[in-house]
Structures are given as structure tokens and as C-alpha cells.
Design brief:
Order of helices and strands: EHEEEHEHEHEHEEHEHEHEHEEHHHHHHH
CATH architecture of the largest domain: 3-Layer(aba) Sandwich
CATH topology of the largest domain: Rossmann fold
Number of helices: 16
Mean pLDDT: 88
Oligomer: single chain
Number of strands: 14
């Protein structure tokens, strides 16, 4: 698709507090999206915060992905504190240096993404936001997050959600027009996640159930702690392999000690993403006990490795796979035990390669990238809003909130004008592309993927 006055080669700036070396669904989504955009001939940079003083400055990742690890310290779980306007000068210089066309923020709890979208819109850039999570409406934290989302998304060009459930949730939380929200799911790299039937022991001797996630309350670890002893008592051949780390690890260790399950519950601790396949292929069944999920990439990775999956039916999990490939349970102890027992009885009839090939046809990062690219060009083809139109959108957010939001936007404009006067953009040195960028673009790999 060609947009009048805009090159078909874009420079996309992805912004989020969450990225490598922290690993999770949001981080993997951003990485694979960036790699897919690069393969389609675009330039991609990524802006994130500092990670434990170990990653600062500019780093290059695969295929020339340029990552700015900015001096932004984390407040809790790598989420940065509100910076208000202090990050604006650095962001402005990066966007001008890299000649960015689109700013793409990720994840609701990333203050850095929200602030960069505000600053980018003040500077006249187009902005897109992807939401990866579900939030409620009643508790204090959700109320504040929802108001923040209303502020940021009042002036957004387009919004992407990873499931239809997430779209409905976000439209209600932020009072959005559903026509301005697209659903583009996550995907899985099926070339890296492949079955290995020889890695797991024979099921008649030992049946392995894998649980691989962050050990936090939201992932349903408390439910798993109740389920594991009961399943071990009913099925002597069942072993559990638990990968991941978090505050609930101590409770799992206490459960293992209380029921004397040291030889039947294996705790791996934190698992590097390169080793996820090795862990998954050791199992026959994958267990997901999450209490809330927008999509859940872990399920896709497990099924792609040939594991039969048992999961709680929460959030957007029901949209990920058809029911013949997964067993659903309500998020309570008894129903999870029921679903696990059915899976233990039926897993011998499951062909790992059949599961792999079905997922391969349903999900691919090439498809996700192509649909996201279409959103970018659609946004660039829209008329640019004037400052008064932007101000009106914020003012309509509420009798009190609207006035506060409008004051923020006007002050942001004032700071931008001051920066333009003090540091003229003509004096900002333009950044060079990654040296191997043009080589990669002219390669047969890029040509094949772009021709699709």
C-alpha cells in the first residue's frame, strides 16, 4: 500500500517499559513485530528504560533492531514512575535523529509509553497503541489506570488489541469508538517451537505436566498449589515440572515440603526463553491456571511443541485455540482437577505433530506484521488533527479531568515550543542506519518475505 507523500519504507519507534532482558508475552510480541517489520523493509527502533544498571545507552539486536535503553529507572516490576515532562527533551532528540514516522506504544502499565505518545502527538507524529492486558472497573488501581488510558487514547490515531475480549474491555474502560480499534492476535515462532517426542519419558511410566509462567497470583499459582497434591495422590505416575520465578515460589516449596513431593514436583526457577522449548518438550500436558489473560502466548508455545493443554477459561484464552485442541476449566480447584484428569486419560491419543501443524496454519508473525503494517499506512493516510481539535478531545474527558488534561496538553505544547527555540531541529544530527540494513534488505530472505 502506498500513501501519498509518504515513503513505503517507514521508521517505526516502538516504546515500552518492558523489553529484553525481561522476558514475557509483551516483550516477545514487540521483538517479533520489530523483526517482521525489518524483514518487510522498514526501519525499527525501540525505546525502553534501564535494566538494573546493566543495560544503558544504545544496543543493537538481530537484523539491526536499534534499542535505546534510556536513563529511566523502574518503580515496580520494571514499570517506570511518571516522568511528566522530564523525558520530553531526550525523546524529541531521538525522534528527530531517527526521522521517525510512527510511534507505537505497548502495554497499559507502561508510563513511558503513555508519556511518549503524548509528546509525539504534540510534535505532530502519528501514534498507535497496543493493549496486552485486561483490567477491571471497581478497584482503586483499575480506576486510576482506566483514567490514564482515557487520557492517552483520547488523541490516539489507532488502537490494537490482541483479542476480541481485550477490545471489548478496552473500549469500555477508555470510552473508545470500536471502529478505531483493531484486533491483531499474538503469534508463535513455529520454526523454534517444534515437538520432540523423544525428550519426554514414556507415558505408561511417567506422565509429565508442565507449568511455565511467572509465579504470581494473577497466573493462578494459588490454584495450582491446591491442585498439584490432589493430582499426585490420584495418579502415582504424574510428575510436575514448574518453570518460572516470582513471589509465589515460596508457597510452592512449602507445599512440596508439606506433602513430601520432592521427587514428583520439579522446580526449575527462572527459565531463559532459549530454553523454553527444552522444558516444554519434556512434558505431555501443559497446565495454565491464570485468573486473567488477554491472550496467553504460553499456550501457543506449548501446543506448538505438541503438548495437550489444560487452561482456565478466562479473558481471551477461549479465542486462542479450538476446543478440540485444549481442555477448559473454570478458575477453581475442583474444575481444574476434573479437566486434568480428563486430559490424563486422553493425552495418549494426541499426536504432537498434528497439533504443531494446526497451529502453524493459524498463527504466524508474518501475518501479524502485515496487518500491523496496514494499520500504520491507514493512520498515515488520515488527516492530521489541529491543536484545537486535540484540545477539544481532552476537554471532553470530564468536568474536572477534562480541564486537567487540557492543561497538561497546553503545557506540553509550551515545552515543545521552547525546545524548538533552544535546540533547533536543524542542529540535531541525523542517525545513520545499521550498516547491514541495506545488505539484509537486498537479501533473498527479505525479498521472499516482502513478496508475500
Amino acid at each position: 500500500m502506498r500513501v501519498e507523500g509518504v515513503s513505503t519504507r517507514l521508521c517505526v519507534c516502538i516504546v515500552s517499559d518492558f523489553f529484553y532482558p525481561r522476558m514475557g508475552g509483551v516483550e516477545m510480541h514487540q521483538y517479533f513485530l520489530a523483526q517482521g517489520l525489518i524483514r518487510r523493509g522498514h526501519k525499527v527502533i525501540l525505546i525502553t528504560g534501564t535494566y538494573e544498571q546493566q543495560r544503558q545507552g544504545i544496543r543493537y539486536m538481530s537484523n539491526g533492531l536499534k534499542v535505546y535503553y534510556c536513563p529511566v529507572l523502574d518503580l515496580v516490576a520494571q514499570a517506570s514512575p511518571p516522568l511528566f515532562f522530564s523525558f520530553f527533551p531526550l525523546l524529541r532528540e531521538i525522534l528527530i535523529r531517527e526521522q521517525v514516522d510512527i510511534v507505537h506504544g505497548h502495554q497499559t502499565t507502561s508510563f513511558l509509553a503513555h508519556e511518549c505518545i503524548l509528546h509525539a502527538k504534540t510534535m505532530g507524529f502519528r501514534a498507535v497503541f497496543t493493549d496486552h492486558s485486561l483490567f477491571g472497573f471497581a478497584d482503586i488501581a483499575s480506576i486510576h489506570i482506566n483514567k490514564l488510558m482515557k487520557f492517552t487514547l483520547s488523541d490516539i490515531d489507532h488502537v490494537i488489541c490482541v483479542s476480541h475480549t481485550a477490545k471489548e474491555n478496552l473500549v469500555l474502560r477508555a470510552y473508545l469508538d470500536p471502529r478505531n480499534v483493531s484486533v491483531i492476535p499474538n503469534a508463535v515462532d513455529y520454526t523454534k517451537f517444534t515437538p520432540d517426542p523423544g525428550a519426554a519419558p514414556p507415558m505408561d511410566k511417567q506422565l509429565n505436566i508442565v507449568l511455565l509462567s511467572r509465579l504470581v497470583y494473577r497466573k493462578g499459582i494459588d490454584l495450582a498449589i491446591e491442585v498439584i497434591p490432589e493430582i499426585c495422590q490420584r495418579h502415582p505416575s504424574v510428575h510436575f515440572i514448574i518453570g518460572g520465578d516470582g513471589p509465589r515460589r515460596l508457597q510452592i516449596e512449602e507445599m512440596r515440603e508439606r506433602y513430601q513431593l520432592h521427587d514428583r514436583v520439579e522446580l526449575l526457577g527462572s527459565v531463559h526463553h532459549n530454553d523454553v522449548r527444552k522444558v516444554l518438550t519434556r512434558g505431555h500436558i501443559f497446565l495454565n491456571c491464570s485468573l486473567t489473560e488477554s491472550f496467553c502466548i504460553a499456550i501457543l508455545e506449548a501446543v506448538t511443541c505438541g503438548l495437550y493443554t489444560v487452561s482456565t477459561r478466562v479473558g481471551g484464552v477461549g479465542e486462542v485455540l479450538p476446543e478440540e485442541m485444549i481442555s477448559f476449566a473454570e478458575p477453581n480447584r475442583d474444575d481444574i482437577i476434573r479437566a486434568l484428569q480428563e486430559a490424563i486419560s486422553n493425552v495418549k491419543r494426541v499426536c504432537p505433530w498434528d497439533l504443531h501443524n494446526q497451529v502453524k496454519k493459524m498463527y504466524s508473525w508474518h501475518n501479524v506484521t502485515a496487518r500491523t503494517e496496514r494499520v500504520y499506512f491507514q493512520v498515515l493516510n488520515q488527516p492530521r488533527a489541529t491543536f484545537l481539535q486535540r484540545l477539544r478531545r481532552f476537554y471532553d474527558c470530564g468536568p474536572w479531568a477534562g480541564k486537567i488534561f487540557s492543561a497538561f496538553v497546553m503545557f506540553d505544547l509550551l515545552i515543545w515550543r521552547m525546545l524548538e527555540w533552544l535546540f533547533p531541529r536543524e542542529q540535531v544530527e541525523k542517525a545513520y542506519d545499521f550498516p547491514e540494513y541495506d545488505v539484509f534488505r537486498n537479501s533473498s530472505i527479505w525479498s521472499q518475505s516482502h513478496s508475500k
